[in-house]
Amino acid sequence: MMNNKEKKKLKVSILISGDITDNGFSEAGYKGYLKIRDLLPVEVKCVFNLAGTIDQAVLTEELRKLAQEGPDLIIGHGGQFDVPAQTIEKEFPDIKFTVIQGNTTGKNISNYVVKQEDSTWLAGVLAGFMTKSNIVGHISGARPKSLLIERAAFYDGLMYANPGAKFLTCFTGNMKDPEINRKAAEAEIAKGADIIYTSLNIGRVGVTETVKKTNGKVSHIGNVSDWTLVDKSFIASAVANPSVAVFKAASDVLFEKWEGNDTVEIGLDNVEVVRLSMGAAVPEYVKEKIAELTKKLVSGEIISNVVYKGKEFNPSTGELE
Questions:
Q1: 108 and 73, same structural domain?
Q2: Largest CA distance in the chain
Q3: Average pLDDT over residues 182-194
């Protein structure tokens, strides 16, 4: 019988489809990998930069390749791994699977979720308070359930603060391409949007450049990391650091706390992970209101709506459809 020192090292594999230099979701996932590598006594591998694809067949095959290597845990970084994880779990029943920002089920599948919708709801509130044109935009590149929830929460916050605001929401189909997302931003600005919230990877660059060309007439709200520290065009950022979830999933398996058919949530009660960061352009009274509403979200006094039933903006036609 093996003693503790002779036990085989836990093997963890992480799959990140995006660019790990995006200063956003993918990079945060990679930082989670680095933290596992540096702090946990496990053997860890990270595969990344699959051209930012959200193609389910491609992601399923990439998960299968990792599973064939026989790790104890595979972490799929992003809700786009929901369906692929369900497929591969059936083929490899002895492997544990975790989906970061996931919304899936399975005997050997867990979801580790940083509640982006909490900080995103607050971002919507801020946009509602600060828009001058009464038109607010949203641009994302993919439609996993996590990003649909995020969009719904932003809209709900916007309506809480400003029920008369017009909402231009757009999914471009590409998280990585700056040009596609630039065109979406140009179209929303042409329709009067003076604040745009983005949930993108490297494709955010196209929106940022477009916003900066307006010379302050349009403002930007980012997500995942603190974009107010990167560029002054960002008045706020809905911070939600998924590197913590990546690390926790591996740590929970190591210390036998991991459970299948489970969802582990990290929310606003952990301010180092989830919060709305606000820049110098945000008035003090708005910051005070955000602080007050943060407490109400944490206590459960306010629960954001996570289903959006409104129309979507088509950048090609400039119409809500």
A1: yes
A2: 71
A3: 98
